[in-house]
Amino acid sequence: MRTPSPAERTPRQAEVHQMPRWVKALVIGAAVAVVLAVAVLVIGSGDHGPSRHLPGGDQNTTQTSDGHTPPVEHG
Amino acid sequence: MRMPPALRKAALAVHLTVSVGWIGSVVSYLALGLWADNTTDDQSIRAAWAAMDTIGWYAIVPLAVTSLTTGLLMALGTRWGLFRHYWVVISLILTVIAVVVLLLHMPDVTATAQFAASASEDQLVDLGGDLAHPATGLVILLIVEALNLYKPKGITRHGRRRASQ
Description:
The structure holds 2 protein chains of 2 kinds. Chain A contains 2 helices and no strands. Chain A is mainly alpha-helical. By secondary structure, chain B is mainly α.
């Protein structure tokens, strides 16, 4: 038995072969969450982890060109 | 390759245990993060960060990696497959994102805990807690849990091809 072409499918069959509504809702929700997270990161200049409170801010931004983190100065 | 029933049941038991354990350990981490964020007692903040570092590396990370591994085994060794059903694919994507973000975030937690161990009272109060990452992670884990419990209908294009073969 051959598979019916998209034009030959009944409305019920077409519904079964579409992406489910719950998947679309989840994808839209995830996209909105990502956009919001990116906006927060941009507004907050990228430092969002707990290390933003450490001396020198985010540790990733304190590395020298040779990849080493300079020692924290005391006193 | 399908797993024999006895092995499938054992793998499912391990997968459920570590997955629920992962959620529980994130809740305890979040509680410590809230505690550190709301207290002004320097010793409490120091203790909270030491505990968050320990829970992170010795509970959350092993449980997360084991949950991902056993989830992959369950998908590949049962009729569900890895890419046949939307709920499995979405669970996999969300779990991988959660594990990757966790592994990228934990060195930051360790650095903060080390700093907290010798920080002054003012620095500790400014340090606060860690809320955004565990709260987001918890939401993701609860979505994955709901998908795994309800298994909503929906077969992917790959699943339809496999079914018609």
